[in-house]
């Protein structure tokens, strides 16, 4: 670390800055004869304060705001007519991503199609399924060799050469737009590959670039930080600092030793990333997934996650984007405790000013917990403890993604039921790696922490549900029950590639030297198009058709708009949970049985939420009570609405 360590670790408070009126005048001048200069100025008037307040909160550099204004003006001037049209449409319909019509799909380009041009050939498949949002996993140029599934970017201006070019990306985004599908890409902003030119310059002695990273001449500071840091990859990449022999210093590397954490207290890093964001926006990207955003700010004595400056930086970047390219939204990837995650939408002064979307990790974990225990009470407790999110935002709900599942279950939630949190998390790991008799799952352990014994797990949704096992005839019903919850909560439901055809674990990853050390590749299989094109699958149960039907019904239910939250209530039957949604377009009571056996629930327990709502929108059938009880089949999933709805 340089001698400025103590000041660098403290937030830089604002000094005298440029006056807002001067900056507005700068913006007008820089926009020159741009036909939409008036629109951009109106957006400055709307979001400029968000930008200036956040900049003042984090950075003292008086040259920063004029630089940002310049970047905004230049990016807008370079924006194509069709993207400007998209900006206008989205400003008129700012809730576009909250609508019940949104359905997401996430895939690795190479596993899904081979390359960007070939992905165009599969747009019709996505349309048929009902997809309106495609997240292509990291596709910018990465380092050679292991690259953490694309999260070790070596060049943000180039697409990975095996996948295509920036022009291919632009072509794909415009084809997707024509098909009614928006494009999400990853923005890896906590770190770069050590092969990135900034890191290379730092290694060859350039002090300007060395200040882009956290580097230390000896172990004093790293050791002091380590006291409160956690480890992300305790087995394959223990510790948070790596000795770099060329730099002759310790480098902060939260993830793998080849991923160098960036120094976001340096305003130059902020400007570099704003430029990257605006460039991607001008290629037609609609949503950026802010990768590992929780880790951006380092503060001694903390776990260096969820620091307030992370939120100020997000507010600043989002405000800049609202002004220059408002068709773009942000999605936070903050896999942090449930009590922290809502702050990524903004709380207090940041409310509604940060990410538009955020992954609902806690809900995902609770679905798997409920299926394993055949008991949904913990889900109801955990969900009731989560704070409201701003009405202008939406959760990204999911059952599986490309990452492992970590058991983010709070002790206090378990204690409400008289359960021990540690024992329950341990049970879930044993369960999903098929080490207990009641297990239906086929998962593998990921990164056991030798000190805390914390274990995470891997496996495709289908394999974790028991698809492929002869003794699990209900595996597909289980999978669909889980996906119905994902589709029913409100927000953007994300399907992970292959789940729609119940793809099971792919053990071939072990034969690829770049993947062999990372068993997350077990759940990143290749798309078998010969099967997918027939809408068939390996379970023999036409999961595709059932999922497509579910999506169709979802789109018809305006009340699933993400602006209203979902209440999650348990019932007197441990396995039965109700999701209750009160929306002016019509109330909906969703009922799920997470057990592999039929159950009877007192009818009033369900009727109380929306009397008269007995038509199941999913099956088109009316739910009829017998002797005051509703009979629910194993893994029943009902979306109850009023007949007229
Ligand atoms: C995110 C990604 C994960 C990656 C990590 C480091 O959590 O989802 O796959 O390993 O960031 O970039």
Describe this entry's structure for a reader.
- 53% of the residues are buried.
- The protein is 36% helix and 16% strand.
- The strands form seven sheets. Strands 1-2-5-11-12-13-14-17 form an eight-stranded parallel beta barrel, surrounded by four helices. It has a five-stranded antiparallel beta sheet with strand order 18-19-20-24-22.
- The protein is built from 24 helices and 24 strands.
- The radius of gyration is 25 Å and the shape is globular.
- A hairpin with a 4-residue loop joins strand 8 (241-244) and strand 9.
- The N and C termini lie far apart (63 Å).
- The longest helix is centred in the first third of the chain and has 22 residues, at 37-58.
- The chain is of the alpha/beta class and 645 residues long.
- The structure holds alpha-D-glucopyranose.
- Alpha-D-glucopyranose binds next to loops.
């Amino acid at each position: 670390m340089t001698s400025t360590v103590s000041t660098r670790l403290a937030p830089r408070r604002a000094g005298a800055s440029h006056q807002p009126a001067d900056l507005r005048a700068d913006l007008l001048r820089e926009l020159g004869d741009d036909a939409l200069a008036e629109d951009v100025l109106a957006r400055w008037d709307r979001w400029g304060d968000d930008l200036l307040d956040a900049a003042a909160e984090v950075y003292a550099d008086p040259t920063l705001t004029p630089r940002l204004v310049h970047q905004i003006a230049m990016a807008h001037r370079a924006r194509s007519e069709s993207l400007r049209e998209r900006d206008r449409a989205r400003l008129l319909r700012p809730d576009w991503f909250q609508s019940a019509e949104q359905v997401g799909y996430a895939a690795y380009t190479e596993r899904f199609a081979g390359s960007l041009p070939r992905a165009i050939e599969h747009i019709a498949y996505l349309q048929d399924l009902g997809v309106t949002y495609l997240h292509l996993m990291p596709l910018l140029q990465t380092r050679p060799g292991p690259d953490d599934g694309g999260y070790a970017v070596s060049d943000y201006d180039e697409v990975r050469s095996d996948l295509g070019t920036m022009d291919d990306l632009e072509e794909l985004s415009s084809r997707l737009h024509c098909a009614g599908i928006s494009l999400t890409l990853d923005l890896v902003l906590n770190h770069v590959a050590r092969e990135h030119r900034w890191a290379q310059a730092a290694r060859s002695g350039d002090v300007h670039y060395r200040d882009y990273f956290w580097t230390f001449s000896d172990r004093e500071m790293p050791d002091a930080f380590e006291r409160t840091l956690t480890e992300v990859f305790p087995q394959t990449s223990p510790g948070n600092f790596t000795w770099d022999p060329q730099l002759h210093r310790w480098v902060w590397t939260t993830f793998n030793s080849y991923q160098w954490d960036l120094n976001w207290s340096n305003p130059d890093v902020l400007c570099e990333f704003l430029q990257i964001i605006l460039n991607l926006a001008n290629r037609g990207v609609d949503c950026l997934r802010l990768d590992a955003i929780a880790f951006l700010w380092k503060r001694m004595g903390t776990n260096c996650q969820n620091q307030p400056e992370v939120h100020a930086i997000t507010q600043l970047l989002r405000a800049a984007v609202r002004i220059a390219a408002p068709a773009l939204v942000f999605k936070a990837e903050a896999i942090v405790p449930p009590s922290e995650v809502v702050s990524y939408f903004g709380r207090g002064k940041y409310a509604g000013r940060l990410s538009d979307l955020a992954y609902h990790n806690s809900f995902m974990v609770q679905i798997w917990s409920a299926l394993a225990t055949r008991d949904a009470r913990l889900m109801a407790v955990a969900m009731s403890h989560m704070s409201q999110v701003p009405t202008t935002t939406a959760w990204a709900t999911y059952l599986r993604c490309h990452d492992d599942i970590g058991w983010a279950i709070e002790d206090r939630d378990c204690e409400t039921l008289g359960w021990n949190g540690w024992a329950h998390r341990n049970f879930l790991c044993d369960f999903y790696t098929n080490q207990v008799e009641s297990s239906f799952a086929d998962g593998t352990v990921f990164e056991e922490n030798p000190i805390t014994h914390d274990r995470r797990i891997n496996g495709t949704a289908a394999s974790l549900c028991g698809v492929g096992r002869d003794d699990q005839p209900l595996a597909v019903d289980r999978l669909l029950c889980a996906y119905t919850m994902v589709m029913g909560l409100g927000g953007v439901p994300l399907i992970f590639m292959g789940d729609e055809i119940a793809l099971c674990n792919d053990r071939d990853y072990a034969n690829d030297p770049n993947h062999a050390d990372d068993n997350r590749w077990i759940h990143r299989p290749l798309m078998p198009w010969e099967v997918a094109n027939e809408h068939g699958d390996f379970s023999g149960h036409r999961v595709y058709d059932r999922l497509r039907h579910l999506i169709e019904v979802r789109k018809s239910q305006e009340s699933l708009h993400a602006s209203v939250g979902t209440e999650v209530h348990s019932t007197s039957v441990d396995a039965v949970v109700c999701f209750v949604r009160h929306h002016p377009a019509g109330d909906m009571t969703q009922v799920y049985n997470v057990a592999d056996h039929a159950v009877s629930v007192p009818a009033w327990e369900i009727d109380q939420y929306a009397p008269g709502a007995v038509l199941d929108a999913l099956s088109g059938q009316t739910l009829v009570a017998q002797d005051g009880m509703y009979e629910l089949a194993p893994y029943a999933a009902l979306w109850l609405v009023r007949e007229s709805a």
